[in-house]
Amino acid sequence: MARLRKKACIALFLFTLFVFGTMMGLRTLKPSDGFSDLAPGLELLPMIGGKMDRRSVSQDTVVSPVQARPAGGMTKVVLSNSGPEGTIFYDVHIFYYVWYGTPHMDGKYMHWDHVLVPHWDPKIAASYPRGRHMPPEDIGSSFYPELNPYSSRDPDVLESHMEQIGASAAGVLVLSWYPPGLADDNGEPTEDLVPAVLDAAYRHNLKVNGINMFLLVAFHIQPYRGRNDQSVHDNVKYIIDRYGDHGAFYKFTSSTGKSLPMFYIYDSYLTPPESWSELLTPTGSHSLRGSAYDAVFIALIVEERHKHDIHAGGFDGMYTYFASNGFSFGSSHQNWKAIKAFCDGNNLLFVPSVGPGYIDTSVRPWNNHNTRNRVNGRYYETALQAALNVRPEVVTITSFNEWHEGTQIERAAPKKTVTRLYLDYQPHGPEHYLELTRRWAEQFNKEKEQWLM
User: What is the pTM of this model?
Assistant: First the structure.
């Protein structure tokens, strides 16, 4: 009898463990609404508070032999062979970072040795470790790259990255960009790397009916000290003058046939809409509209009120960036239908951002409440389906290689050291999230064909 009771207790314990595990898994797929103390990517900043035609994609296009260079508005490029890299899609954009460094290439580790960011409340901060990571065994990420901690300046790394992005079917990499001489708080200036990235994208060419097609590059303008509407005017002019004629420079083609560069403006809410309107409306004091530097400008929506500011500021659309569903209004999948309706009603693009998961506790150890488990890819697929449900014209992927926040789809490897046990993609292989991205990019474009019919 005692033995029977023991077996019953064990069975009850295992059942309870199963139920608990299931509930935790569901929590990652449907987190609570609204902000959770700190937006993961806002780096401790407090929350602050005559339109062009919408840049829409008119139809899916199969490239003809007379088209030597892809217009960014083309939805897809279909290759003559139908292998795993049979298609790339210019309506799938992926955020890309070049801030990593190693002693061999850069004289020191950069970003892999990221500091442990203290909580803004000293009482909470006192409960968590301080200092910085010590690569290569201890890096500022919960995952470990298959390429090992690398330098963004390594030509072999750039080639591998372009190959992986091509394998994912994303046609446009969105390059994190700072003006010359400027950088984020944990890195060094990287503007001099832009030509190498453009060249690497251009070299990753795909034969389409005998014509070379290329990965394309758009720019993600980051916040920097002194950034305002006037400095962004100068940034846009600099980028277009310097890189606008490159074969890998991305241009978005509108339904009217006009092709313009596209710029994502991160943390756009830090500048008031009245200032943006001087740059982005036809009557602004230093307006780019109708000039040689006109472009498609996409702002970041974090809070609900930002959608009105984005419209008033003269932007052409809004994106959500963050991969942690539920932590902000913009990144909450349940709000995307309402945001899309607002955009449709105001001639704006809505560009939802999806990611495979989120975990930044290697750099913000106190932020575990914003962690979103990958659930072997189910979290990513849930996010991708949520994006497709609102029928967007462009989808962005957060990210290819933002390792600090655990949003990367770049190949990762299992890794265990004396002090660390890194997460990995098992039971799947290192390409799992590249393959999922390709599968959903193909599904996105199949559904688009139905929408357009």
Answer: 0.85
